Amino acid sequence: MFFILFFAIVSCSPKNTSMDINLHGVNTGNINLLSLKGKVILINIFQTDCPVCQEEIPSLNKLYNYYKNNKNVKIIGISLNSDGLNSFIDYYGIRYPVYTINQSDLSKLGGVAYTPTTILIDKNGNIIERFVGFRDFYFLSTNINILL
């Protein structure tokens, strides 16, 4: 059952989220999601001790490199745990910005039951998709391109 749930795609109809969400930078500065309004945002929520999250990092690095010069797209990671996070970022060679988030702001994103969870937000601040489990570069880039 866990296996099925873990790899299920959780789709949702567009849901406007409060974009007033503060993210605390680990390998970058702090931001508020309001500053990203007008961009397609891919948020990957992970835990450092999650093997599937670790496996997904190369795809996310490739995705970040592909879109890093596109002003209409923002790729970010949010870690649910902060212990050893800088070492984790260095060890796995994470290139995209990584943040931490407080619980009340995480709930504005709909919360997280399993990691990795990837949230896709359109230019208007609507949560368009929630994907649970590993997603590769092709799958994620296809979903981003639909929103551009």
Please tell me about this protein's structure.
- It is a single chain.
- The chain is α+β, with helices and mostly antiparallel strands.
- It has a single domain (about 1-145), classed as Glutaredoxin (3-Layer(aba) Sandwich), CATH 3.40.30.
- The protein is built from five helices and eight strands.
- It has helices spanning about 1-5, 50-65, 85-90, 105-110, 135-145; strands at about 10-15, 20-25, 30, 40-45, 75-80, 100, 115-120, 125-130.
- Helix 2 links the parallel strand 4 and strand 5.
- It is globular, with a radius of gyration of 14 Å.
- The termini are far apart.
- About 30% of the residues are buried.
Topology:
Blueprint: H1 2-6, E1 9-16, E2 22-25, E3 31-32, E4 40-46, H2 51-67, E5 73-79, H3 85-92, E6 98-100, H4 103-108, E7 117-121, E8 126-132, H5 137-147
Parallel strand pairs: 4-5, 5-6
Antiparallel strand pairs: 1-8, 2-3, 2-6, 4-7, 7-8
Overall residue-averaged pLDDT value:
90
What order do the SSEs take from the amino end to the carboxyl end, as H and E? Answer: HEEEEHEHEHEEH
The fourth-level CATH homologous superfamily is Glutaredoxin
Strand content: 25-35%
Structural class: alpha+beta
**Name of the CATH class:** Alpha Beta
Architecture, according to CATH? Answer: 3-Layer(aba) Sandwich
Can you count the beta strands?
8
**What fraction, in percent, of the residue positions are helical?**
25-40%
Number of domains: 1
Q: What's the main sheet like?
A: 8 strands, mixed
CATH topology: Glutaredoxin
How many helices? The count is: 5
What's the end-to-end separation, in Å?
Answer: 35 Å
Roughly how many Å is the radius of gyration?
Answer: 14 Å
